[in-house]
Amino acid sequence: MATTITLLGGESTGKSDLAQALCRHLNEGLHIPTALVAEQLRHWCETMGRAPRADEQSARAAEQTALIAQAASQHGVELVVADTTSLVIAAYSELYFNDTSLLPAARAEQRGYDLTLLMGLDLPWVADGLFRDSLAVRDATDAVLRRELQIAGVRYQTIYGKGPARLQQALRAIGKHLGRPLLADDPALRLGRGRWVCESCSDPDCEHRLFSQLVTTDHTKDPPP
Length: 225
What we know:
Blueprint: E1 3-8, H1 15-29, E2 34-37, H2 40-48, H3 57-72, E3 79-83, H4 86-97, H5 103-111, E4 115-119, H6 135-152, E5 157-159, H7 164-178, H8 204-213
Parallel strand pairs: 1-3, 1-4, 2-3, 4-5
Helix pairs in contact: 3-4, 4-5, 4-6, 5-6
């Protein structure tokens, strides 16, 4: 089975752009066979011309999950980059419909993925004229995702930066997980794969420092029990 990397975040947080950039770099630049799983909720909304109703949310979550599993089982694929998971859809269900029924299964699913990258809120919110609601919804989605990842006990790294800087930070996190450099100057690998570096520790204080510095090179933190 391929290693699965999931990108989480609310609207206008750069998930799709980063997912596509990662796949291009991994496939074309590093020649690592990588499959991209696009955000099916977005595709469904564009096709239907509307957002799902409350009773349609479960099917959207199940479709995203199935496509990730299908990609991970493809022969020859080493990495899967998933542009969102069912956890994002479950978060939307809570925010829009006050329905938390999808959260337990989404938490369990997220635990099974190899690496979780949470999109930082440093990018400007941009309306798309279609389905993006507001900056407030984006912030609320981020809060729900952080809460659920903590409940699930899923370590994650928040990815900041614009353009190449965002891509480099994501590649550094992936390289740390894989135990091999994906960047020519990957300082995290000097610490060894067995140690959990601050930029990956899901600690809000550490994340605040990371956001200020963008790259943390030598501060370490033991993983939680």
